[in-house]
Design brief:
Helices cover 33% and strands 21% of the residues. The protein is built from eleven helices and 15 strands. It is of the alpha/beta class and 350 residues long. The protein has two domains: 3-77, Fe-S cluster assembly (FSCA) (GMP Synthetase, Chain A, domain 3); 90-340, 3-Layer(aba) Sandwich (Rossmann fold), CATH 3.40.50. The longest helix has 22 residues, at 319-340. Helix 2 (51-63) links the parallel strand 2 and strand 3 (70-77). The relative contact order is 0.16. It has helices at 3-9, 51-63, 105-118, 135-138, 181-193, 213-221, 235-250, 282-286, 299-306, 311-314, 319-340; strands at 27-33, 36-43, 70-77, 90-97, 123-127, 147-148, 154-155, 157-159, 162-166, 200-206, 226-231, 255-260, 265-266, 273-274, 291-294. An eight-stranded mixed beta sheet has the order 8-9-5-10-4-11-12-15, sandwiched between helices. It comes from Deinococcus reticulitermitis. ATP binds at residues 99-106. Residues 3-70 form the MIP18 family-like domain.
Length: 350
Amino acid sequence: MSDALLRALSTVQDPELHRDLVSLGMIERAELRGDVAQVKVNLTTPACPLKGQIEREVRAAVLAVAGVRELELVFGAMVRPPAQPPLPGVKHVVLVGSGKGGVGKSSVAVNIAASLAADGARVGLLDADVYGPSVAHMLGQGSAKITANTDRKMQPIEAHGMRFVSMANLTPAGQALVWRGPMLHSAIGQFLKDAAWGELDYLIVDLPPGTGDVQLSLTQTIQVTGAVIVTTPQDVALIDAARAIDMFRKASVPVLGVVENMSYFVAPDTGHTYDLFGRGGSRKLGEQFPLLGEVPLEIGVREDADAGRPAVLAHPQSAAALALRGVARRLAGQISVRTLADLPEQLPVV
């Protein structure tokens, strides 16, 4: 490691963590080869929302070092786990919930997971909506069946660069589950602990709507990193979202942010914007919690879900897909910020 380069890099702060890259242990390599500086920066998540800003500031700092004429900059990523990882091999468990049904919670959860995976993270997706599982259909795996591996653990199904488990892949199509609370608790425990999730940076959990048994079982079974609340702009949805937030507060689960889904609609023929459900109501919640994004209502998101391909992959340049990618990256940033609270003040250079 070059002392001159490390001194220069110590002036660059992570814009979300508000500490310099060197003390955060984000510099893997900082070497001088003649007048060429070779630097590798390990971001705290592959989905870093402010990578561009970090790159600009690193270039400015390094190229200001005497004798440096060129910079070869490489980025990696290392998602740090909390002090107490929730499951073996799983660094973060994030719950995606809503106070009521019909707000597009499952669609948001699927697209968050797909976006994080597309950015290079190791991602799992648990469909905990046992009574109304829809994740398998949205991923084009409705007819697939979960099998057991050689260790007699459930083998998650792989789709679009992630692993997932859903009750839809364990029961006959169209069969209703008539289960009481203890059976739900047992099923959730099996999904979490008896599935071969492997090494994951993030396990995204799609919760059923409301504040019932599944939510209680999850928060009592494992230590989760936090929750995301999905709502729509109208008052009735916001009232129910506030109830969901209160439930997580009572369960000591941090709320990482709010997503306003179906925020507005842009008519494809005229380009006129319609606020079908009002707009901006979630900003009231955003005064207490980060507003991760406002996702427009688009026909394509529904069509992509029915076709079994997340919108962020099927039509990545659509307005809804870009908003959902932003949601996922801001969420990853919030997770990094929360994890920082568990880190020592000074970390060794990697």
